[in-house]
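Record passed on underneath.
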Amino acid sequence: MKKIYLFLTFAAVLSLSSCNLDINEDPNYPSSSDVTPDLVFPAAENAVAAAVGDAMFNYGGFFAQYFEQRPEANQYNDEAELNLDESSNLFDRCYRTLYAGALADIKNVMDRTENKSDLFACTVLRAYTFQILVDNLDQVPYTEALQGNANTTPVWDMGEDVYKGVLAEMDAAEDSLKGELMTLTDPMLDKSVKQWRGFANALRLRMYLRLIDGGINAGEYQSKAVALVNANEFFEGDVAWDVYSNAEGQYNPWYDVARALATKNHVASYPIVSYYLSTNDPRIDYAIMKNDAGEFVGQIPGAKTVYKSWGVDWKNKDVSAIDYTPAVFAPIYLFTQSELQFLIAETQLRWGNKTAAKDAYEAGVQADFASRGYAVGNFLSGNRVNWDAQANDASRLNLIYMQKWASLFYRDHMEAWSEVRRTDVPATSEYTARQIFEDATVYSPGQMIVPALNYIVAGGLCKRVPYPSTARQLNKNTPAEKLLSDRVFWDAK
């Protein structure tokens, strides 16, 4: 069955990547009425996964400082050095895939079914899609999007309004449920309305926390977050698109791109290596390789092309390469159980029960270890990660955030980057990349490092992606160009 789903859904993504599409164009294929909604829905699921698990996984890995560009290769210098603007086309393929693929397919299904459970699942997937669009771009077409020839230049709505809009859509769709069984083909959550409700609640919690920290109706969303956590009606396992296999044409898409390039471009970044080492974390072995000297060595962010000016002849053999093997047929994660538990832990610590916060924190760590096939052992007794060893609640909150960052590596890099922006954890070192390279004692393991070569005019870290150049060309309502230093609405710090 996995092969069948892959054939159906990859056809959609390939058709999108081969042409320049307006987001309002109808991409469904073929146009025959024989393509029923139950076959279109997995195409929508795949389109979402293709965006999150390929391009976003890649640039999110650089922005969350998991990845760096390998010293003797050049594919991702711009991502490492934050040398990106609209001409870079960083988000163009994701934009087309999500609008002309996922959202258009979801609308197609919703227009052709009256089954309330099917409509609910579509609404939840639509909400997730708009959430990740906002988290990348802030403003996106929403209220006037997907109207076809009736409106080829939709307005771009404010990110806050899109969040509120899709939250209201999910509430209305859930209120309309009538106990019907899903009829759509659903390889992601296996037609389980309970799982879709759990996914919806997890999305609500994620968005509520971002609205709260963005200063948007904080009291209202705090109450809603606490109520969600107290009700504890979340999904089981992970929400993941798990259809890949170790066979030609069926690989995980990020791995397939890396394989097609035939050059190993990714090495581990200094922050993630230093944090794993400082906490004696066995997960460092999961996708990070030792260098030729048998050591784990992370590369200073953005330093690849300036090492020589620092008097260092830095080579591939000197740094820890990323191991692509775990990605060969890895699922694409839309929401991990680990992230969910960390969000629950945060909510409990900030506004609820501190004992429950500890339980959820430890459950988050354990869930990630289990997903990688690791036993947690005595890891949680280590001083740097032990809940009870923390001096105060501020330290415990920081610990939740740090372990979430550690757990999202090689899982969901888009959410890792978003959570770094929301929480400002890991904190950014006050020292320059060169100072840290020359004296590691000034650096606290795990801190973010402003790239040594950094094209952001205002300096600092990447806060958003540029608007797609295709949107600029096709839609006169596309907002004025933004800089990488311009924050999305919920990144208020």
Notes: The radius of gyration is 22 Å. Confidence is low (pLDDT under 50) at residues 1-32. DSSP finds 17 helices and six strands in the chain. The first strand starts at residue 67 and ends at 69.
